[in-house]
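Researcher: We're teaching a course module on how sequence relates to structure. For the next exercise, students receive a sequence and then see the predicted structure as tokens, so they can try to spot secondary structure elements on their own. Here is the exercise chain.
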Amino acid sequence: MARPDATPCDAQSGAEVAQSTDAVHLIINQIGKPPGKGQGVGRFSPRYWEPRLFRRSWRDEDGRLHTVPEWRARMQFAGERREVTLATNDRQAASRSAAKFYAVLRAKGWKHALDEVLPEAKPKPQLAGPTVGDWIVAAGKVFQGNPRTFTGYATSFRRIVADLEGIKDPDGQRFDYRAGGREQWLESVGRVGLASVTPDRVDLWRKRFVSSHGTTPLKVQRARRNANSFIRQARALFSRGILKRIGMEPPHPLPFAGVDLEPEGSTRYVGTFDACELMTAAREQLKSNDQEAWKAFLLLLCAGLRRGELDALCWSQIDATSASPSVRVMTNDFFSPKTQTSERMVPLAASIAAELEGFRPGASGVFVIESRHAPPPREARDRRYRCRDVFDRLVAWLRTNRIVADKPLHELRKEFGSIITAQADLFTASRMLGHSTMDVTQRFYAEQRVRVVVDPMAKSM
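Model: And here is the predicted structure for the students to work with:
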């Protein structure tokens, strides 16, 4: 089992309560003994903790309730409140452990309590069962989606496991594809026993990730969203579909069972630029100087394409001459959509369609965006882009035009969704963006459609 949830804390917390270990032993020796005459049941007694223990539970996709068998207790000391995993499913033994833990906590602080009282709760370096690498390989064989999507899931899971096990990467070893550094890093992470990746440890990772990346309110918000993204992607490796087909005994509990996500705050998109002004600047600065970046700009802002969709877009997918011009996002020889709902027909404005059609006669190949790089094979699991040079130039141009978002190209897609929502509705925006569910669209674009203000002053004048 994993050690109790914890965040870095002062090892000397609570030292003022007891100045020597004698006080600790005196308290611990009383644990389990009935209270004397006139004594109540305090926090140093197992009888206090027994009715306060609880177990974590969660519901799966079918609505079935699952419960983690180990007992837990909530404790507060020195301004910190935490859940402590007591590493046993025996209620009486858990009560005794809770009382002992609280005694050491009061006397010596959080660090000593976590390290000394429940050493058996620490993860063992070698555990029976499949390793992290075994699970990723087996899951990859039964995964039925886009290979690049699976790569994202595996990358997030490895990141969490590496952090949990302290597998450092100070020199960017995991990105060293040529000298074998990546293989060594993957092997180190892959050797970790899957059973050691428990919900408690993932919870601990989440808290430490946020605390180590967030100092200002904005950084904290970004850290929370990044932590949630890692967790969402990594737990997809343990989805119902994979568990049914993998043919391997999963750990119990599953690594992400009952793991809470960080509060992210509002994710609603708020535009930071005027689309018409940006279009005017792009026409003046890109159309004659960088035609590929100009075409990419048009399709990102006016069709809401993702980078991967644009990277493999062929001229055969653009209908610019009919009465209803459109661009069709679909599977082709070089690309598979992110999800089934990603395949869609996006209407194009006649002016945008005509602008794109003007480049068709001079095309040197099947792709709308020209590039010196060959397209990666459809089965490629890494996220290489054929048009990466074009994307880099467009990002640089957007930066000079005050697009300050972390992902400027994706910001154009978000602006497209915002415009569609304002002119039509969320359902239309969801279909044109190719979102998997309406919930995704609502997270970013749900807004008050009618502007209402309260102005009693107007009637009093």
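Model: If you want an answer key for the exercise: Residues 275-445 form a domain with the hpI Integrase; Chain A fold (CATH 1.10.443.10). The mean pLDDT is 82.
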